[in-house]
Amino acid sequence: MDDRIIIYTDGSVIGNGQADSKTGWAVIIMYRNVAKVKSGKGTDGWTNNQIEMYAVFKAMQSITGKNTPVTIISDSQYVVKTFNGEFQVGSNEAMWKQLMGERDKFTDIEFQWVKGHADDKFNILADMIAFGEASS
Fold this sequence. Notes:
The chain is α/β, with parallel strands linked by helices and 136 residues long. It has helices spanning 48-61, 77-83, 93-103, 121-135, and strands spanning 5-14, 22-31, 34-41, 70-74, 109-113.
């Protein structure tokens, strides 16, 4: 039996780049054939990158067993490539510091990119949930 936790994350913004943008996030946690969904609103005025980062932060926070292997899957190249060292932290430095601190609590965590709005049913579900949160 695979003991790896698989997590899909997504963030959604209505009015990206505007001071009054509405945001939502979603996390789908899968472990031993059981899925849990967590979601919520983000901060008004956040950008798409910020809410994508926040979704990953909420995902990492939700895992209590930091020694369990974890794969986080996101459609944000910004998030995945920054975690994987392909992009350097530039903007959102305070958020990245918090994210990297949370990441460092894990003994085995990896980040994978998936093409958004394509054919991955869990990415599509996370997107629908995040958009619902941003819309409500």
